[in-house]
Amino acid sequence: MILTTTSQIEGYPIKEYKGIVTGETIYGMNFAKDFFAGIRDFFGGRVGSYEKSLLQAQQESMREMEERAKSMGANAVVGIDIRFETMGAKGSMLMVSVSGTAVVI
Known about the structure:
The chain is α+β, with helices and mostly antiparallel strands. It has a single domain (2-104), classed as 2-Layer Sandwich (Translation Initiation Factor IF3), CATH 3.30.110.70. It contains 2 helices and 4 strands, in the order ββααββ. It has helices at 31-43, 48-71, and strands at residues 2-3, 16-28, 76-87, 93-104. It has a 4-stranded mixed sheet with strand order 1-3-4-2. Strand 3 and strand 4 (93-104) form a beta hairpin.
């Protein structure tokens, strides 16, 4: 399955549009990560634990969207948009949502 943020795939004409597909993941952040992230923020630098969680959430959302596209008979998803949002009290949860158009190429 080809997944792309572009609206077309060079060299592959779109034969059929199947519809919009989405994938969502919500992660709760734990106390230890928050504590060490606070220390890291104070002294500066990257927060590896959050970066890892962000990447995992993005990958899971993409997998979910891909599975939904496959179930519609698509073999590609074009025009993918990836959004990140904090939710919950004090931003204690991270939501990653992806959406695109399932197509047959």
